[in-house]
Design goal:
The structure is a single chain. Helix content is about 35%, strand content about 20%. The chain is an alpha/beta fold. The protein is elongated. The structure holds acetamide. Acetamide binds next to loops.
Length: about 550
């Protein structure tokens, strides 16, 4: 008996949270990491919140909160002095990290503490979710107590491929708004690839006018692309939501649409992928792409540009029959096409570094020698874990986005007929939620090199916004918790229970989401594949 008490005492010392009390939870996705509830509730209704004028630093968070609260609950508010009510106040606390916040829900005041815009944003999104999900009739009830919270990982991203199919300003804004709701903070925008180029470049207008024509399912579709004015509008919309946008201008492969517009810079391709590459041995190619990247870098103040670097071998066999490339290889002592690829990427990276930008690259570049302080690797090939190890060993910060379970174009359940599979494998919501990102950096050597996680939606099989929604929701919510909540905070059953109410929010917004509680739904809806709808597109 005595031994058992000592034993339990020892266990309590080691794992105090686990034995003494289960961490309380609140109706927030991603689940906050530290919560202490004092018991009781705050009851709020229309007009019962009173705002203290906030410092400029907190204006975006405060305005977004008021706007979203109104949109989602119909509640409006007063300023202090205009009426009596529960005060919402913002206070700067420089002792907190950028994204960290304290949300103190006292008996008659709610106080947000943060050191920076991002922390204040995260605080009000937690409050917003509690108020929206805690609303019944005209009254919203939130628990009293304190949340002190910060993310497990700084990079919590979602990637949308708009080359294969184009969705437009309103859809992108809607996605950004949901990302903000879930505290996701990086939007990786895949704007160029084989089917189309989707971004206006003033110096080279044919990129969008000719390169913007077509889609994966309809090569003759009229040109669709974002004007620079639309990009600025979207960037500002994202900034207000604390989301940085990382555009991807894929090179030297996946350049087919650009090569349709300016064939003089094509490096050729293969039978399945004609005109797939930019020409790596023409001086003009580097000048042309540098001009493009200058416009891109000005449009996107994140200071990040993703340069791709993936799957160049789909088209680089053409480089074996090109005299200019033979001379490049001889002159620079480049042994083969892989070395030419690396040479190309280093030159283009240097162009961007001269503009003070940093670059993202796919994991084919894990051994490229690109400078580790300015390069972020994206590990995507789940079947090549050695590429992740190589990136880490070479000292790179790395974003984790392996196809399974982080490519959102993979099917989610056995009965889903259209979309991608790997052999028989696909990406369930549960596998996504349980993906052990923290374990990848268990080794002390690589501590801190995992920048975070990202869900990637490639759109070969996504030719409608319904299908986009179906593959994205509620995966976006699960992704948010993978990136934010520490492993001791995560619990799939608690997540699913909380998710039920989020599905109600999706319904209110007419999103066509995947319902994990009714998985047969797609069967009924997507019973007829659109033309050229691939079962299993090539990687
Ligand atoms: C990729 O899926 N080609 C990065």
């Amino acid at each position: 008996m005595k031994l058992r008490i000592i034993y339990i005492g020892f266990f309590v010392l080691l794992f105090p949270g686990k034995v003494l009390r289960a961490q309380p939870s609140v109706a927030v996705i991603p689940q906050p990491n530290r919560i202490s509830l004092t018991g009781g509730e705050l009851t709020l209704r229309d007009h019962s919140l009173v705002f203290e004028p906030e410092a400029l630093l907190f204006r975006d968070a405060s305005e977004l909160f008021r706007e979203q609260l109104f949109v989602r609950t119909g509640f409006t508010w007063f300023k202090t002095g205009e009426a009596a009510g529960a005060i919402l106040a913002f206070k700067q606390n420089t002792g907190l990290e950028q994204e960290e916040y304290i949300l103190d829900m006292g008996p008659d005041a709610i106080v947000v503490e943060a050191s920076a815009r991002a922390g204040a944003h995260n605080a009000v999104m937690s409050l917003l979710q509690m108020m929206v999900l805690g609303k019944e009739g005209g009254v919203s009830r939130i628990p009293r107590g304190k949340i002190q919270d910060k993310p497990a990982f700084s990079w919590r991203g979602y990637m949308l491929d708009e080359s294969r199919h184009f969705f437009g300003v309103e859809k992108v804004k809607q996605l950004l708004n949901w990302m903000a709701f879930y505290k996701l903070n990086r939007f990786h925008w895949h704007l160029t690839d084989e089917p189309a180029w989707r971004l206006e470049i003033r110096k080279y207008p044919l990129l969008s006018l000719v390169g913007g024509i077509g889609s994966f399912t309809d090569p003759a579709a009229g040109a669709r692309y974002y004007t620079q004015q639309e990009i600025r509008d979207i960037v500002a919309y994202a900034a207000k939501r604390q989301i940085e946008i990382i555009p991807e201008i894929d090179m030297p492969g996946h350049a087919t649409a650009a090569n349709r517009a300016y064939p003089q810079f094509s490096g050729g391709g293969s039978r399945n992928h004609p005109d797939f590459t930019f020409h790596p041995a023409k001086k003009g190619t580097y000048t042309y792409l540098t001009h493009i990247l200058k416009e891109v870098n000005v449009l996107f103040p994140s200071g990040w540009v993703h340069l791709g670097g993936d799957e160049v071998s789909f088209g680089s066999e053409a480089w074996n029959n090109d005299r200019l490339i033979d001379s490049l290889k001889a002159g620079r002592k480049l042994a083969g096409n892989k070395e030419v690829e690396t040479y190309f990427m280093r030159r283009m990276a240097d162009s961007l570094f001269r503009m003070n930008a940093r670059i993202g690259v796919w994991d084919e570049m894990a051994d490229s020698g690109l400078p580790k302080e300015k390069t972020l690797q994206f590990w995507w090939r789940h079947d090549k874990p050695e590429q992740l190890q190589l990136a880490l060993k070479n000292g790179y910060a790395t974003v984790i986005c392996p196809r399974i379970p982080l490519y959102f174009d993979f099917v989610q359940a056995e009965n889903h007929r259209y979309g991608r599979k790997w052999g028989k494998a696909f990406g369930t919501l549960e596998a996504l939620y349980k993906y052990p990102v923290e374990d990848l950096q268990k080794s002390e050597t690589y501590k801190g090199q995992i920048a975070g996680v990202q869900g990637n939606l490639w759109t070969e099989t996504v030719n409608t916004t319904d299908r986009l929604d179906f593959l994205t929701f509620p995966r976006l919510a699960a992704l948010a918790e993978v990136g934010w909540s520490e492993s001791r905070t995560k619990n799939y059953d608690r997540f699913l229970e909380g998710l039920r109410k989020h599905l109600g929010l999706y319904k209110e917004e007419n999103l066509y989401f995947y319902d994990p509680f009714d998985p047969a739904k797609e069967e009924a809806y997507f019973n007829k594949p659109p033309e050229r709808y691939p079962d299993n597109p090539e990687d």
